[in-house]
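Hi support team,

I submitted a single chain yesterday and got back a structure, but I'm not sure I'm reading the token output correctly. Could someone confirm the output below corresponds to the sequence I sent? I've pasted both exactly as they appear in my results page.

Thanks,
R.
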Amino acid sequence: MKMSTIARRSAPFAVGLAGILAITGCSAQSTSEETDSTETLTVWFPGSSQPEIDLVTNTLVPEFESETGIDVEVTFVDWGDLSPKLNAAFAAGTGPDVFGHGPAAAADLVANDRVLDLDDDVASWPEDDQDDLASALTGGQVDGKQYLIPLSVSGWLVAYREDLLDAAGIDPSSITTWGDLKDAAELLTERDGDRITRAGLLLGTAAQQRTITFNGLISGAGGQLMNDDGSEPEFDSSEGVQALTYFADLYNGDDAVATNLGEDYVNSAAAQQPLVTGSAAMTLLTSQAVSQITIADPDLKVGVLPALQFTEPATFGGAGAGLFINADSEAKDAAWEFITFMSSPDISTDYAEGTGTIPIRASAVDSDYVKDSPALGVFINQMPYFVPNPNVPQWTQIRDILDSYLEQALAGQATPEDALKRASDEVSALVG
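Hi R., thanks for writing in. Yes, this is the structure output for that exact sequence:
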């Protein structure tokens, strides 16, 4: 195995493919019809997490090489450099056989014929495997076809301090709706005059996190961000107004329960998490953040609520970063063999444990990794209610437009109705 690492800057939410791939390649086709001409496979992983680098290069890839006899050249590319380096490699005809990226990149990669349609290959898996992976696979599909095989699942649920809810006489099992959550947050909020000293509830309001939060809220109200074929925005709706009004009211008015609008608490170090410092009683968090908190402070009892609803349970989540096969690869069979290996029960769980993420298989709920973390089990059990961002062309641009108008509504600079109307007009002009 050969390995190199490009750059070391962290960008946890940089899953878009800005200025994507004007260079087109060969048309995507099933790997099952290809014959590898080489036993060397080039693989690019996104990110610069040292634990992930160590796990992949020191354990997982050597095991794959030992089992298959295929040599793997691994490169880790920082998220911020990934798209430019891929574009340059595609232009030069030196792109990797397999490369990792986020689901937000999928539709544009497909539109530019850069990646293979993997439907036939997934269909070749045993039915039990397909069922076990079903919730994760959905997030890697474009127009109903599979292009990305996730390495992990990302999910956002409300975590809470058990001691603070106990002290307030709140039974977590009684919180099933967003309305219940707001009522509990009001009881948990502490003030010094007009200043909130302990937030009852924090939802993600940093850049791009606003759209993530809003997606969960509008989905819980029965709405969605885009129509099914991605040709029109649908967030300017009664469901969207209900969701954004709720979101904005948490931070504004006499009944506000949240503070520090725009602060990126989600990516804070475990010791600085609002739940740990006591500056918040409940926060919307990823599974990784919850895991880091419990590892850093095992004595702090943190619970996780199931997906909440206005009319139906929903929360933001779905496929995290995953693996694509380059449409120009000359090692397609080996590429699929590598993806199958990474998706296998033991390896996929080892990968999730090593990266602190949600495993892609529902059966991982019975693994020691999940059993040792009750909170993680909640995330896995809620996977059927995870709603991903739309896998549509130009999604990153659509997201950024919506995000900017959500920011205005949260800051009280625009009404929810006006913010969503203006965002919808701008997105319609973009995709029309």
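A quick pointer for reading it: The chain has two domains: 2-152+320-360, 155-317+392-431. Let us know if anything else looks off.

Best,
Support desk
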